[in-house]
């Protein structure tokens, strides 16, 4: 009987150790995932801070650029002040007014980001949006020279 009790206690101790190991390994994996997530967020914040501290990338002035919207050529006028986009205006377009109104929501996004590279086309006015983005890139190419 004594041998049975010793074996039972040994088995319980081994089972307890395995449970503790598994719990510790799971917690360790969760902590590693959280640390990786924090590192990624900090890296992103540091990159944004660096981007905000860059020298102005555009020369001050007013620039025109063109792109292809839903119904053909679309032209925008971009005003740059202190190296940043200060104003954007759609000068001409053959696109339907409703599409242009939808797509013009991009103008605020472009001004906020300081670039036409970081915005996506507006659903429902995809071609007009792409025309605006193309025209912005065209105008900003000249401002970057």
What does this structure look like?
This protein is α+β, with helices and mostly antiparallel strands. The chain has two domains: 1-54; 61-144, Sufe protein. Chain: A (Alpha-Beta Complex). It contains four helices and three strands; from the N terminus they run αβββααα. The protein has helices spanning 2-52, 97-103, 105-113, 126-144; strands at residues 61-69, 72-81, 84-93. A three-stranded antiparallel sheet has the order 1-2-3. A hairpin with a 2-residue loop joins strand 1 (61-69) and strand 2. Helix 2 crosses helix 4.
The total strand number stands at 3
Q: Strand-residue fraction?
A: 15-25%
Output the strand order for the largest sheet: 1-2-3
CATH class of the largest domain: Alpha Beta
Number of helices: 4
Mean pLDDT: 84
What's the Cα radius of gyration? 29 Å
Q: What is the general shape?
A: elongated
Return the CATH topology of the largest domain.
Answer: Sufe protein. Chain: A
Could you give the distance between the termini? 91 Å
**Helical content (DSSP H or I, runs of 4+):** 55-70%
């Amino acid at each position: 009987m004594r041998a049975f009790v010793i074996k039972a206690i040994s088995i319980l101790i081994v089972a307890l150790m395995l449970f503790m190991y598994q719990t510790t390994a799971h917690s360790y994996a969760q902590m590693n995932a959280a640390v990786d997530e924090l590192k990624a967020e900090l890296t992103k914040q540091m990159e944004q801070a660096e981007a905000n501290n860059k020298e102005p990338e555009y020369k001050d002035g007013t620039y025109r650029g063109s792109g292809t919207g839903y119904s053909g050529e679309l032209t925008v006028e971009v005003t740059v002040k202190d190296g940043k986009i200060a104003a954007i205006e759609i000068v001409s377009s053959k696109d339907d007014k409703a599409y242009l109104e939808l797509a013009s929501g991009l103008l605020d996004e472009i001004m906020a980001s300081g670039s036409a590279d970081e915005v996506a086309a507006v659903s429902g006015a995809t071609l007009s949006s792409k025309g605006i983005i193309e025209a912005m890139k065209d105008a900003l190419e000249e401002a970057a020279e």
